[in-house]
Design goal:
heterodimer; A: about 120 residues; mainly beta; 4-stranded antiparallel beta sheet; 11 strands; B: about 110 residues; 6-stranded mixed beta sheet; 5-stranded antiparallel beta sheet; about 60% strand; globular
Chain lengths: ~120, ~110
């Protein structure tokens, strides 16, 4: 149980375009979802936390108008990278915690974004 | 920000024991996690400590000292497949995790 999926797994886009990444909890309802970014050979950096039906809370230094997060249901959160630039190229990983408030965050497999 | 430090890289021999240390300085501490991450994949949960002491789970053990802001992950009977990055993460508040820099472990024959 506790499976989180992400789509797409890899995406290449041109500078200036927008890209949407989906994060789904497949077998549990996720009250809270988290979005992380990971640059090569670096650790995960928390970008934002989203609760179903409310606005996301962004970490310091993360532009909320550039990284749009929507948590419309208990099983789906989306991250849209708007007006992408090459420096946005990174590995984006989502995670989720369930209604039971368990200890763990369950991580998705990640999305590799390359902006050309 | 959160000051969570780990060694960048470690190398150990197959069959041996390795200890990966993590130190942290943070307010609102609510537990410490260890995750394993293979290149290009998502992290997978290894252990969780919220009270001082040692938690053992098979070949993996994790220790926490809250007063010292210190934790370690102990891996026994190392196998080649244990080559991966090991991430220490501090939990703040109800849910938020803040990750350390990660330790890249290489297991050699």
């Amino acid at each position: 149980g506790a499976v989180v999926s992400q789509h797409p797994s890899r995406v290449i886009c041109k500078s200036g375009t927008s890209v949407k990444i989906e994060c789904r909890s497949l077998d549990f309802q996720a009250t809270t979802m988290f979005w992380y970014r990971q640059f090569p050979k670096q650790s995960l950096m928390l970008m934002a936390t989203s609760n179903e039906g409310s606005k996301a809370t962004y970490e310091q230094g993360v532009e909320k108008d550039k990284f749009l997060i929507n948590h419309a249901s208990l099983t789906l959160s989306t991250l849209t990278v708007t007006s992408a630039h090459p420096e946005d190229s990174s590995f984006y990983i989502c995670s989720a915690t369930g209604l039971a408030g368990g200890l763990e965050q369950y991580f998705g497999p990640g999305t590799r974004l390359t902006v050309t | 920000g959160q000051n969570i430090d780990q060694p960048t890289e470690m190398t150990a021999t197959e069959g041996a024991i390795v200890q990966i240390n993590c130190t942290y300085q943070t307010s609102g501490f609510n537990g410490l996690f260890w995750y394993q991450q293979h290149a290009g994949e998502a992290p997978t949960f290894l252990s969780y400590n919220v009270l001082d002491g040692l938690e053992e789970k098979g070949r993996f053990s994790s220790f926490l000292s809250r007063s010292k802001g210190y934790s370690y992950l102990l891996l026994k009977e190392l196998q080649m497949k244990d080559s991966a990055s090991y991430l220490c993460a501090v939990k703040k508040g109800a849910n938020n995790l803040f990750f350390g820099t990660g330790t890249r472990l290489t297991v050699i024959p």
